[in-house]
Structures are given as C-alpha cells and as structure tokens.
Design brief:
mainly alpha, elongated
Length: about 240
Amino acid sequence: MRWPSAKRSHRLAALTAALAAALAAALHAGVPARADDDALVAGSVCEAQELKARKAEDPDLAIEIPPQFDRPFPSLAACRSHEAAWDPEAPGPKQPIPFSHKHHSGTFGMECLYCHSGTDRSRMAGVPSVELCMGCHGVFPPEYDELEGIQILKDHWERKEPIPWVQIHRLPEHVKFRHQRHVAAGVDCQTCHGPVEELDKLYVVPDTRWWQYGLPTKKLEMGWCIMCHREMGASQDCLTCHY
C-alpha cells in the first residue's frame, strides 16, 4: 500500500475543507436567518436602554444586550436628556456640560432656587457651584459615569475648578435688574426665562404673545419689560431700571 505524499495530503485536506464549506453554505442557503442573526446589539448602557424601549413598542424586534450593558443606570431619561442637551441642531450655545433643565427641573421637579440659591435675596441669580452638583452626583451609582457630562463634572471637582458655563440671558450694563425684587413680587422664573423645565438645551425663547406692534419679540427686550410692568402694575419710571 502506497501512502500519499505530503504534497498530495495537503491537496486532499484543502479539497475536503472546500467541499465541507460548500456543503455548509448550500445547507444554510435554504434555511431562513435566525432572529439573533439580525439582532440589534447594544454597544453601551444608553444604547441598551434605547433598544429596550424599542423592544417594548415592537415585541418582534430582535435585540441583544451584552451583560456588561444590561444595567438600570443611567436611566433612559438621563441618556436622552444628556444627548439632547448637546444636540448641535438645537438652538442655543453648547455648554461645557450637557446639563438638561428638563431632566432636573421637569422630570425630577427640582426647584429653581435649589441650584440658583441666591435668586430670592440677591440681584444676581448666579450658577450652582461644582460642590452643589456633587452633593447629588457624588452619591449616585457609579454607572452614571458612563455619561460624558458626569465625567466632566467629576473632573472639575477633582481639579477644584469651576465650570465655565456660557451665559444665555444677558442685559446691557445700563439696565439694573434685581432678581430678588421680582421673586418677592411673585414673578415666576418662566416669565422671563421661558419654560426651562421643558428644555434640554437653553436658549433665549421668543415671546409667544403678540402686542401692539403685531410682531413677536425676544424676551428681555425693553418693550417686553415695559409691557410686563404695565400688566403687573409695577413702576414704569425710567429710574426703576436705569440708575
């Protein structure tokens, strides 16, 4: 009996492998693709939350959630607000952190004065300190660190640096606006700043009321302020705001 040469053995092995592959392909061609072959695979916790939400709406949707992304936090609402607050197509400037007023004030009902604590006793409303933010986020589950905004916040905390927020509402220097007077008079924050509890990304909201000129105005313009003072019975003397 003659044993095949090494060269012939290699050819035989290659032919056998090719035949096996062709047979497998032929058999597979007649079988419909399994659901998990076309499954949408999550690449992060936020993607997993979105896929779960889509699955709830469409039970036939095939999804795959890797174990490392199958976690309750960050929540779906947090993921969506985080993304919306940095949406480049949305009006308003990009902030250093994708902070969503809608998520904090709308979803969780946080009072404006909790973060802007000087509004009822100072001319300036001010912005919250990093320490105030960390009072909540410092005790949140570490899974929230997946959000880039939380990473940036904690980085500022570690470096003891304030967050360089971009100012949205700015008045000319010759206008003297005092927050505490308006808060004491019962003026809601939304009257001047718009429905912040509905906004992920802040911007100067156009006034929805039409007045004597028949044109919509931007909030914080002098004509808009005068109209509000008339309606509220407040002083319209020039020195009330210009002194």
